[in-house]
Batch of 4 targets.
Target 1
Amino acid sequence: MNKLGPKLIAATMAVVLAVVMSVMVTYAWTVLSTAPVAEGIQITIGGSNTILVAPDLTKTVDGKTYHFPGGFSGKLNFSHHEAYAYLSEIASMMPVSTADGKHWIIPEYYDILDEAVLNGEACVGVMKPMEEFTVDTQLQYANLTEFSASGSYVYLDFWVVSPGTEYTLRMSHGDENGGSYLLELMDAAETADGGFVLTATEGTAAATARIGFLVNSNPAGETALSCYRESATFSDQYRKLVGVFEAEQTGGVWQQENFTIYEPNGDVHPNGENGTYVLTRPLGIVGGRVQETDIWNCLSVSLENRWKQADAYTPPIDELFQAALLGKNINSAQEAEHEFYNKYLQGQFMPYVDKGQFIQSTASLQGYCYGDGMVSIEEMRALQTAGATDDISIVTLQKNVPQRIRMFLWLEGQDVDCANTESPINFAVSIELAGSNWDH
């Protein structure tokens, strides 16, 4: 089997949620609860001149919205683009489940007026049977600006292009200056003398969070191309656009969509099976019914991401925290976290993170989990690791054809670790997309 190595050309997407994901009380798949609150999201994509990235722009023509790329470059910061202003207004995230990125399964809970509750057959707040869950296919529970007591998730679109040749995109571990990770930020806690210290979190968000990429080769059509030609960022070397999603269908031939799921911290199970990796079987639609679904053909798993241990080159994170607060008038833990993560580090976590390598072959991991869906952490960590998962890819880029990609971020309700937690949760995410000019 070929390995992804020196031929990888990287385009890095760093999704920094600096003190943005905070649990108000608790969250869980199995009980009615509150949710993490997103106060703002900053996203950065960096790369080389081999793979370029661009923001997603839109224009409405005769009541229909058409998508086209903005200016392509080697680096893109979404926070600098008005088109992504909505990310700073997202109010909540609650556990959901999906196997394909198109059907989002939202749990339903009994309330006081349900017949089963009135008859004494169920209790308020208990989850209803799976067949009574809501199936969201229109992004109704995505990017909510008001708190949702049910499921909610985040998505955004962007464009990628390969001007030189055909490239196959995968998630990548990256080097010291980039890479993929999802890491819970430590909480600030007030001390008896009125100071503040950093405290470790349980790891629940890190264990249950998922990132997904939905793509297809559907042609955008002539109207979208016209919108692109009329834009200030048009480049005449790009004469075809691909990546149109079902809600925008206006006719023509539609290609099969590909969905890739990234599971960071696969060997972290704070609330689940200690010492065991437990296969997540998300909910999907099978035969018109909501059922657990195998996702081995689209799953990419990495090992635990953690804070670096202090060494000659990296000061202890605790010392950096105290340096950030020195001389500042800090009145609350929330202020301390904002001062440290937002102002002092400015969302730059990469120098302080040890990124987990990817399991090289998802098929090999599947083989170990065959039967009961579990494998010991010891056996999992003994599997071959690499800078990317060889047998799972996001999309193959056509030369000089901009590809629209839809990215999702959610908390997977089917994960064994999706259980109650009462500590605030903050986390940072970095996604690196790496391309190789060959595939299996």
Target 2
Amino acid sequence: MRGSIVPVVTPFRNGSLDLDGLAGLVDWQIRSGSHGVSVQGTTGEPGSLSLEERKEVIRAAAAAVDGRVPFVPGSASANHEESIELSRFAQAHGADALLFIAPYYSRPGQEGIYRHFDALAKCVDLPVILYNIPGRTAVNIEIDTVARLKEANDNLIGVKESNKDFEHINRLLHRMGRDFLVYSGIELLCYPILAIGGAGFVSATGNLMPVEVARLYDLVQEGKWLEARELHYHMMTLNDAVFMEINPVPVKTALGMMGKISPEVRLPLAPLSDRNREKLRGILADYGLIR
């Protein structure tokens, strides 16, 4: 469960799920060397989907993965009972592990976070990975809470950290041990997290350049740190472009320009601005992703 686990977008066409498009993206990711596939993280717009649509996405993605790489769907939301239902569904439909985002909007304290995750971890017989993204959820999963959850749940194997506080991530690995799987959810921290013992990354940029993002991990595994460092800097402009507006709007726009899917997003997200669209087009051309 290490390496580049790509958070694949959820394609829409004329307002409906484009499950054929999703299957095509998943297959492309695997053929391009991605080490794992995730759906229904932030990049997958889970908040814009109904519970039944989220199940459809999990079912379709699992079928497309077909056991070729680890499949790690996001199965949690701000609604506790819905999170339990979706987690059990994902286990029954081919998930290899589950990704649990911190509860958003309600802004629970650490005790509420603990009880929520503890119940979710105990409702399935799969490895679970917590997803800490304070910039979206307005809550931080504190290290003491992670340690407490690990002590109570043997199936808690790691955390996806989309926390820009690199000191926090260092202290997390120090407290939990280097066998605990910590993944970067911040594109510019993918290389640094590998350097301190991280397990890999869940990078939105992998949607656009899966070969290169997977190669970053592979180079480190081969001990080619200088080549990995140069690749890290080579990817920086695209990493920044992916977040020129709220994720996943730029990613889906880019995939549309590349001819992979329709670039549709659902309200309340809006299409990329005309100014940023032209800027993005130039960046994609510079990287050889479009002509």
Target 3
Amino acid sequence: MDYVLNLVWLVLGFAFLIKGADFFVDGSSSIAKIMKIPTVIIGLTIVSIGTSLPEAAVSITASLQGNYDLSIANVVGSNIFNLLGVVGASAVICPFLIDKTIMKRDFPICIGVTVILAFMLRDNTLSLAESIVLFVLFIAYIILLVSSALKNREDAGEDYKVLSTGKSLFFIVLGIAGIVAGGQLTVNSATFFATALGMSELLIGLTIVAVGTSLPELVTSVVAARKGESEIALGNVVGSNIFNILFILGMSGIVHPLSCDVGALIDTILLIFVCLIMYFVCITGKKATRSEGYVCIFIYVIYVIYAVLRAYNLLPF
């Protein structure tokens, strides 16, 4: 009976995620046009924060409950999936344009904060002071985005359908609710099946929970790409990765200093290499192609295999 019930929750979770993302993209895009704010800024702020709410809920709750490994594994695993799985799947389903602003400003920041996190985890801990530094950097990044938005207002295109302000806000709230509820249902049911199959908690954190909490980013980016909002498609991923490290780990570490094993540092270093690879792939072309998307997905599958083998001590490192 438990298996049937969890399967129902899993299907409902996907349904909430897909429809929630649809509402969220429509609402946030309209707000951007109404306020004459570049769509890329909306993708880097409202959309990325909204789709990262499941990660925030999981990591902060894990910190409160003393599951510190899960807090870090969820964020690092989600960021790897965002760059490889989300960007890869979005490109395969609907190739999208690469936004120059993201490549010049936000992607380098994403790489930089990942390097900072790796440096902080060198002693297998994230102290209170280090967590405060991450949170302060998050505030500084938001100020940078707001300042950029105020300097670069743009008019909505004549062919773009803009919703009313009230309807746009309603769509955003409804979309976030659907995304959060869908992410939670999906993670809970997927974790149930993973546990029933005998997977370790750390492996669940790096794979099932990380992918589950990143499903909002996946669905939102795919929907945005299909709607022609390429700025949201890529901005959502880059913004979410920055938000995950600076805000989520910052807040989790402020709640309680985090500790982890050497595996978390290894995964963070791998994340740095993934960031660099994706940066050079994106900066050398104007569009994320299907072939590049397939390569990203293939690399992610290799990473999952590595994580599984390492979790079961089948590798020497």
Target 4
Amino acid sequence: MIILVINCGSSSIKYQLLDMKSNDVYSLMAKGIVEKIGLPTSRIQHTPTGKDKVVKDLPIPDHKEGMRIVLGALVDKENGVLDSFDDIDAVGHRIVQGADFFSSSAVVDDDVMKKIEYCCDFAPLHNPAHLLGIKACQEVLPGVPEVVTFDTAFHQTMPSYAYMYGLPYEYYEKYHIRRYGAHGTSHQFVAKKGCKMLGLDIDNSKLITCHIGNGSSITAIVNGKSVDTSMGLTPLEGLIMGTRCGNLDPNAILYIMKKEGKTPDEMYNLVNKQSGFQGVSGVSSDARELDELANNGDAKAKLVFKMLTHQMIKYIGGYIAEMNGVDAIIFTGGIGEHNSRLRRRVCENFSYLGLKFDYEANTAWGVDTIISMPDSKVKVALVTTDEELVIAQDTMRLVQNMEE
């Protein structure tokens, strides 16, 4: 079964085309990313398996056009891997927010689309983009079944005392206001993969998974199930991120609104799109650029990483207390997989638990690596995530069930 996996971000479209023979037997046909959608510097990077990467800079005003460009790349005479769109058997989509409507993946129908749209207020940077991706595929690939996999589904095992806010209960009943988390597909994947690497039984384990990237979240996992996570009703809560502020006193928002005369929509833009790394540094939301600036002595860039490290330590420490211990800490995501200094600074704070850090192994860059010493009481690993594989597996299962 040939499955196209689409992962629409707020300004990007990651994609993989996989030939799925079974859950564990598959081959990658092509992968790529459309970046900086809506900006003057938009581009597509398309890599057919066994061929060189193709990079093209071109105007990509929105996700609909981005999807057309992705599909065009897959059937391109020179660099494509398909004869026609008819070769695609199914499409799987990553969806950030499914609220408490979904505890597992689902086949796309009108009801599913309405619920994803309802959740747009909970993931305003992502769900609208996901809907555009689904609709674009429906236009270009009519009749091809589509499946959605939700970042929030994995976190539906959280107990109510972990997901409820201290607001009047009526707002939970009326508007579904509660903690939902995000990155669940990634947290679930790296937890299973990390346990295999470390020789742990996931059904008898206490794990903390750190998905650190432009968007970041940390999750406490007991016996394979999420029990707490740092993101909240929306992906805004928790750690400082690329353009999101993370945790702050809600009264700070009201104070700025009064002082600056800002509307709710303007404040939404401020805390979601103008804050975080971008807001503190005043230069960039890209951790790679800020890391280079920090290495050259830029004080605000250094502050960004000190804030991120400090907040990660607080969350990890809190989750260790919540779970009454931890067997392993796992780093993943764009920053988590590629920033050795961040991993070192975080882990050095847990030596009191018997965590013995392997400084030499920690030089690894984007490769599955155990970065704790063999006699460390707390294991640490860098685990590369593959959300697209999980989505393809779920898509294959659901589509096969439809056909039976």
